[in-house]
């Protein structure tokens, strides 16, 4: 299993695989901002819309793949305000249903945390559906639960659910971020 940070050009090249992952994640019931059924064309367009932000350095996208099969992704969103450069938001941690239960989510999360710290980020935050499997992952990885907002987002089926806010403080490390990480899953 390899985890690699994508350039904007690589994201463009991987857009079909990323769209398949996004539709699988939504079809699997994950509340990641989309309603089911998610049209594949809409998923392709959504990923294509990320390329400019990746190119500008506002988003960093990592993908996990085994051979030529993309099984997961995670994204960090970096604020553009001068007083916010020490933090980032972890968004769209997705694992294909075929790759779940193998530690891939934990690997992607650890990669994002390590790379954020290498980039000088000292604070990460995220929101996730309350009582979801993702919430357990963040708690077990040392994230701090801040609280929940009732009826914050809809599940893919349209049901309003609470969202839990998490944060994690990091220690910045010297050195440039790596572009490829080989891991055992």
What keyword list fits this structure?
185 residues; alpha+beta; Aminopeptidase; 31% helix; globular
Quickly describe the structure.
The chain has 185 residues and is of the alpha+beta class.
Model description:
The chain has a single domain (2-177), classed as Gcn5-related N-acetyltransferase (GNAT) (Aminopeptidase, 3-Layer(aba) Sandwich), CATH 3.40.630. It is 31% helix and 34% strand. The protein has six helices and eight strands; from the N terminus they run βααααβββαβαβββ. An eight-stranded mixed beta sheet has the order 6-7-5-4-3-2-1-8, with helices on both faces. α2 crosses α3. It is globular and about 40 Å long.
Tell me the series of helices and strands, N- to C-terminal. EHHHHEEEHEHEEE
Overall shape: it is globular
Main β-sheet, spatial strand arrangement = 6-7-5-4-3-2-1-8
Structural class by secondary-structure content: alpha+beta
Report helical residue fraction.
25-40%
Number of domains: 1
Give a count of the beta strands, DSSP E runs of length 2 or more.
8
Q: Layout of helices and strands, plus pairs?
A:
Blueprint: E1 2-6, H1 8-13, H2 15-27, H3 40-48, H4 51-56, E2 59-66, E3 69-77, E4 87-95, H5 104-118, E5 123-129, H6 133-140, E6 144-154, E7 160-169, E8 180-182
Parallel strand pairs: 4-5
Antiparallel strand pairs: 1-2, 1-8, 2-3, 3-4, 5-7, 6-7
Helix pairs in contact: 2-3
């Amino acid at each position: 299993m390899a985890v690699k940070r994508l350039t904007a050009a690589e994201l463009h090249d991987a857009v079909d695989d990323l769209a398949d992952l996004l539709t699988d994640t939504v079809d699997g019931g994950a509340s990641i901002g989309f309603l089911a059924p998610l049209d594949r064309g809409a998923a392709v367009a959504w990923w294509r819309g990320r390329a400019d932000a990746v190119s500008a350095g506002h988003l960093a996208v990592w993908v996990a793949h085994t051979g030529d099969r993309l099984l997961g992704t995670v994204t960090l969103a970096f604020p553009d305000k001068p007083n916010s450069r020490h933090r980032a938001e972890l968004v769209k941690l997705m694992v294909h249903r075929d790759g779940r239960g193998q530690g891939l989510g934990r690997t992607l999360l650890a990669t994002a945390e390590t790379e954020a710290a290498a980039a000088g980020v000292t604070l990460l935050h995220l929101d996730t559906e309350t009582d979801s499997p993702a919430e357990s992952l963040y708690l077990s990885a040392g994230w701090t639960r801040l609280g929940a907002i009732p009826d914050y987002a809809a599940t893919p089926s349209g049901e309003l659910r609470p969202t839990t806010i998490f944060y994690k403080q990091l220690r910045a490390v010297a050195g440039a971020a790596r572009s490829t990480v080989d891991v055992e899953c």
